[in-house]
Amino acid sequence: MGTSGSSKGPKNSSPLVPPGVDDEPGKPLPEPEGQRFRGFRTEFGRAVAGGGTANLTSALGKYAREATLGSAVGPRRFGAAYSSGAALADTLSNIAAGGTGQAPSGVDLSGLVGQPVNIAAQEIARALAPDNIDADSITAAIQEAITEVLPEAGVFDPSLLTPDALVHIMVEFFSRILFIEITNVAGDAWNHAPDAAHATQTEAALLELIRVVVDKHFGPRIAQGLNGATREEFHKLERAAMNEVWREWEDQA
Fold first, then answer.
1. Which terminus of the chain faces fewer neighbouring Cβ atoms within 10 Å, N or C?
2. What is the pTM of this model?
3. Which of 28, 45, 30, 41 lies closest to 67 in space, CA to CA?
């Protein structure tokens, strides 16, 4: 993963939702509150220092409640991810059904069949990356989700894109999106790690905690969306699932 300690993270005065990725553009946002990251970063720093899962769980609660101001605001941050996620599901479903992926993605992806999985993942991510500040994180999340689910040593085979595999890829995509965002917001709290091994352990534990809650709330909705939902309907299902993730985290002490 290797994301820890990459930056100081956003400032308390940073916008709650960066321009261009708001899922509800035009709707007023509250003003950022002073020291809104303090509680989250303090608890996260304790986890990195060796506190473990209990501190990470508490950190996620403070991230949802304080750093992002709760479920009425936090999920708005991922508008670009919802759009790209819906496009990813549409593209992979089209390829699984024998299509070229061009109708949903705008690019003929038929030449990826038989290519190494990592190459296919890279090209699919490139085709679906948005033109905004989330381009890098969405590109990374798509690549990591596909290579996590499909056999990395094998070749890209549409027959492997079963309904269960598609759900798994989408759950992994949103897990990685949240992981990237949260590790970035943690900023210099990573400096509390006594060594690289502790940082790596914290990354793995955080990603697994995120996966569990994403699978719980996104899995059923994605399975529903893959059964004939339009891209707009799929987008709404994703947002509803993210709202549920935030509400669960808000309830954590």
1. C
2. 0.95
3. 41
Of 91, 89, 203, 81, residue with least CA distance to 141: 81
Determine the pLDDT at residue 4: 54
Beta carbons of 63 and 227 less than 8 angstroms apart: no
Q: How many helices (H) and strands (E) does the chain have?
A: 9, 0
In one letter, which amino acid is 176?
Answer: R
| Other CB atoms within 10 A of residue 161 CB | 20
Q: Which two tokens stand for residue 115?
A: 């290519």
User: 252, 60 in Cβ contact below 8 A?
Assistant: yes
Look at residue 155 and give its three-state secondary structure: strand
At residue 152, the pLDDT reads 75
Distance between CA atoms of 147 and 124, rounded to whole angstroms? 11
Are 96 and 166 in contact by the 8 Å Cβ rule? The answer is yes
Enter the tokens of residue 213: 């809650």
39 neighbors 68 (Cβ within 8 angstroms): no
253 pLDDT band, cuts 50/70/90, is confident
Please tell me the distance from the alpha carbon of residue 225 to that of residue 214, in angstroms, as a whole number. 15
Average pLDDT over residues 181-207: 96
